[in-house]
Amino acid sequence: LIRFNSSSSTENNLITINKTTYSQDEWTNISKPIFNSIGRNIHLQPCHPIGIIRDIVESHFPAFSKYSNLPPNVSVKDNFDDLGFAMDHPGRSKTDTYYINKDNVLRTHTSAHQTAAFRESDQFLITADVYRRDAIDRSHYPVFHQMEGAKLWPKHHDIENTIQCLQVSVEQPAPPFHSLSNPVQPQHSLKQVEAVVRHLKTSLEGVIADIFSKINAGEHMKVRWVETFFPFTSPSWELEVWWNDQWLELLGCGVIQQRKGEMLGWAFGLGLERIAMILFGIPDIRLFWSLDPRFLEQFQANSISVFKPYSMYPSCYKDVSFWENTSSFHENDFMELIRGIAGDLVEDVKLIDKFIHPKTHRRSFCYRINYRSMDRSLTHNQVNSLQQLVRNDLVAKLGVELR
Ligand code: FA5
Ligand code: MG
Question: pTM for the complete prediction?
Fold first, then answer.
């Protein structure tokens, strides 16, 4: 059970999020730092990098309805069932998703609101904080932001005539609709789908080209489309951009699974932190959550400026090795445990050694935890006591045997 002191909204086994009260059960796995990050709404701040990017993307879709205030507590039905996620999809597991209780989660993506938004509008953008249990490093944080875009047309509308021609150079243009795992839906004609996909791709290429031209003016920007799978779109793609000598995934998208009668359309889901890290030169994802004026005062509404790092404080590495006692050890549970203790004082956690005992088949792990604060020097005593708490909790909560 979550028990937070002071003015917390949890009492006995109840948890209240945005005025809805839930009873906790054996699925509940929301930690205190996660609970506390709900409602920060950094995507609504016009002078915050995440808010600035939201404004740029929104300016590309002037006629769309905008939703930016939807609470993160949603039902399993909204987040998974209604979108066609298989019952054994790994995203549903407790190790990947924050459950409020068996039937409710913190949304893992903005797609959780698609069905409800379509009841009000045929073209919309949704911006929101989303929550996923994940690794700890400079580009992963358990809360990040997504923008969902979607547009529907009556099935027999002449979509072709609504496409504006944009000048973007695409390294790998639209792959054809050939994959058995990524097919055109049987109720759609190839001609219609080609028009929808051309509209989707030119719209997104336009957004990305606009964003990247702000830092890369005049330089040739390479993007490519890669086929992928989502349970709620088909065919589906990811858009990748060539950045620092590698392909970086920015968004997923596709033709919406036909759920709404005689309509046809597209949807996309764009991650804001990745773009913001590139655009503003922000080296560590934790900085987006900083309340330090040295961070916040660097940015102005509607303008892109490269982040000037203030001094880096020293980091301190601590290793911990242990045997698992059951075969149920999951790395995300360990990450969550560390976040619960060290919060934003942990920069990254890496598995540096793994060993399987030849006779007992028990697994042994060695992890290296890098502690570093972004706004002060940590003392040895502080780091040692954090590490001691991590070691204690490993035994008490994950049932491992320290080596
Ligand atoms: C989705 O979340 C789908 N809902 C996207 C979608 C919407 C597809 C509508 C089709 C139609 P995915 O898990 O790939 O897909 O996440 C989408 C984007 O969010 C990624 O491309 C990436 O930019 C961002 N993202 C995903 N995981 C993380 C993470 N841990 N940290 C930062 N950004 C992330
Ligand atoms: Mg993806």
Answer: 0.89
